[in-house]
Amino acid sequence: MLRRLTPLLAATALLGLATTAHAALKPGDAAPLFTTEAAVGGKQSPLVLADALKKGPVVLYFFPKSFTSGCTLEAHLFADATGKFAALGATVVGVSHDDIATQIKFSKEECRDKFAVAADPESAIIKSYDAKMAMLPMSGRISYVISPDARILYEYSSMDPADHVKNTMKAVEDWRSTHKQ
Predict the structure, then answer these.
(1) What is the CATH architecture of 50-176?
(2) Is pLDDT larger for residue 164 or for residue 8?
(3) How do 35-40 and 116-119 pair as beta strands?
């Protein structure tokens, strides 16, 4: 039993030591557009960021690994808030280094069929948003709010999942207050 736990303990320790570089994308920067495979409610489909932005702002949040405790908590928090984001005209999209098979399962079980989770197994999107952990191929925990004109409105980086929803919601509310339809 201890032999099986040792790699897990080492990985957990490494995750604790690995830090996310400060996000290079700041408010006003152009948001890199991408197309990738994603899942909503256990169903796979292409996710085109440019298409999502046509509907309104996008809350793009990066998380390290599906089915880990912090990432599951964050998925639950975003799932609970998806209706309020939608009422403000915003779309929520999660991204991690996991493959699409994992995201299909994660979207159903932990995202509660509420929002898309994108697969980025090559870390191309993660790197383009400077969300990669310093020593690992996976992302850190970084949330962006992107305006419909593909500009970064807000960026928040913290490995603690607790405030990502609250902070991105405030950024979307602030944007909405100046862009009433």
Answers:
(1) 3-Layer(aba) Sandwich (3.40)
(2) 164
(3) antiparallel
